[in-house]
Specification:
By secondary structure, the chain is an alpha/beta fold. Strands 2-1-3-4-5-6-7 form a seven-stranded mixed beta sheet, with helices on both faces. Strand 1, helix 3 and strand 2 form a beta-alpha-beta unit. The N terminus is likely disordered.
Length: 137
């Protein structure tokens, strides 16, 4: 069931253009959140547009959640220092602490998983999250 949720999130992202739209992004964030150690749909998010899309998907926007969306490099740094597993849209922000980078490549959604950052956050990710990652570094 959980892997089906993650696949559904990826399929929904497939309709996105070269930039991630908030609704498909929120579906992927929800899929990762459900497949994290918390097993519930909670995501920390300061981006109002993405937060609205998360709420429409039934995800609770909660600053205390262990999973967080970061829209800027500064947010990545701040959120990773606070021990959150940080998801962002830019590969160059990995050194700032991002654990997952979500992008659209060739019209298809992909996400990269950086295991060291994920482990540092202390957030457990189910095998299905690793399985669907384009690269696991």
């Amino acid at each position: 069931m959980f892997s089906l949720v993650l696949v559904a999130g990826l399929v929904a992202l497939g309709a996105a253009s070269s930039e991630l739209a908030p609704t498909p992004l929120s579906r992927l964030l929800k899929a990762i959140a459900v497949n994290s150690g918390e097993g519930i749909s909670r995501v920390a998010c300061n981006d109002e547009e993405v937060a609205r899309a998360l709420r429409r998907e039934g995800v609770r926007v909660d600053p205390t959640a262990s999973l967080a969306w970061a829209a800027t490099e500064g947010e990545v740094k701040e959120l990773s220092k606070s021990g959150k597993l940080v998801i962002c849209p830019n590969l160059s922000w990995v050194d700032a602490g991002a654990a997952v980078v979500v992008q659209v490549e060739g019209g298809r959604p992909v996400y990269y998983l950086f295991q060291d950052q994920a482990k540092r956050s202390g957030v457990y990710l189910k095998a299905v999250v690793y399985h669907y990652a384009k690269e696991r570094r």
